[in-house]
Amino acid sequence: MEKTMRKGLLQSIDLYEYILETSVYPREPAPLKQLRIATANHPWFVMSTAPDAGQLMGMLLKLVNAKKTIEIGVYTGYSLLLTALSIPDDGKIIAMDINRETYEIGLPIIRKAGVEHKINFIESQALPVLDKLLQNKENEGSFDFAFVDADKDNYWNYHERLLKLVKVGGLIIFDNTLWGGTVTQPEEAVSEHRRVSRGFIIEFNKTISTDHRVEISLTPLGDGMTICRRIC
Ligand SMILES: C[S@@+](CC[C@H](N)C(=O)[O-])C[C@H]1O[C@@H](n2cnc3c(N)ncnc32)[C@H](O)[C@@H]1O
Ligand SMILES: O=c1cc(-c2ccc(O)cc2)oc2c(O)c(O)ccc12
């Protein structure tokens, strides 16, 4: 595993493990822990939302009383299950991913946790799904929360659409906005497979910092998570 993945963004692996062991894992709901373990041997396991970032996300979902949410980028479903466990029994999540196979790794655990009825999984590119939602005026401003954790080159496209779908006071969260710490490294020092997305993330961070339709906080949890609150 890459060193940066083991220590999150902190400079010390010990400190990151201390945070996980003392305040995250002991409070992680059992189904989420099962899903994390079920994902651990999958070749793309590093894509799972970091448990420390997930813990804050669960608290934010409850703080805004989220009931209707959107999830872009499901993979095996760590953040999806976390959301499903954090919203009320009659809450609904529209979840989209181009790959249903990886969702099916987590699905038995989601079923066992008794929250599958809250999830509408759509196997598709996310942009056309959002555009279809926007064709119906009733969907405008009707969502409480959205989580974006997919193709980094489309983050701004997602943002523009989600700003119309999420209500004033609602939250949009973007994952990986510090991209393994590479946002401050010279391009030539960044491994090739991270370079392209790094450019999109840097551009996204620059643009969102001047977007006065939202309040923002770029939190250095997990791989960096930008929390946006729609204000107009
Ligand atoms: C980082 S993973 C998501 C991790 C997930 N949030 C979790 O907690 O496990 C990114 C996911 O985005 C999906 N993806 C990539 N491009 C996409 C697109 N254009 N539309 C929808 N999903 C996409 C990938 O198939 C992958 O499963
Ligand atoms: O290593 C990755 C790669 C991605 C990624 C790249 C390109 C896409 O179209 C979608 C996803 O996402 C990741 C991610 O969200 C993460 O938390 C860690 C690693 C990666």
UniProtKB/TrEMBL annotation:
Cited PROSITE patterns: SAM_OMT_I (PS51682)
Necessary cofactors: a divalent metal cation
* GO BP annotation list: methylation
**Gene Ontology molecular function, alphabetical:** caffeoyl-CoA O-methyltransferase activity; metal ion binding
> Is Metal-binding one of the keywords UniProt gives this record?
yes
Its UniProt entry gives the catalysed reaction(s) as: (E)-caffeoyl-CoA + S-adenosyl-L-methionine = (E)-feruloyl-CoA + S-adenosyl-L-homocysteine + H(+)
Q: Could you name the domain of life of the organism this protein comes from?
A: Eukaryota
Q: Which Pfam families does UniProt cross-reference here?
A: Methyltransf_3
Alphabetized, the UniProt keywords read: Metal-binding, Methyltransferase, S-adenosyl-L-methionine, Transferase
The residues forming the signal peptide are: none
Under InterPro entries, the record lists: Cation-dep_OMT, SAM-dependent_MTases_sf, SAM_O-MeTrfase
For this chain, the family text in UniProt reads: Belongs to the class I-like SAM-binding methyltransferase superfamily. Cation-dependent O-methyltransferase family.
Cross-referenced PANTHER family: METHYLTRANSFERASES SUPERFAMILY PROTEIN, PUTATIVE ISOFORM 1-RELATED, O-METHYLTRANSFERASE-RELATED
Q: Spell out the protein name for this chain.
A: Probable caffeoyl-CoA O-methyltransferase At4g26220
Gene symbol of the encoding locus:
LOC111284990
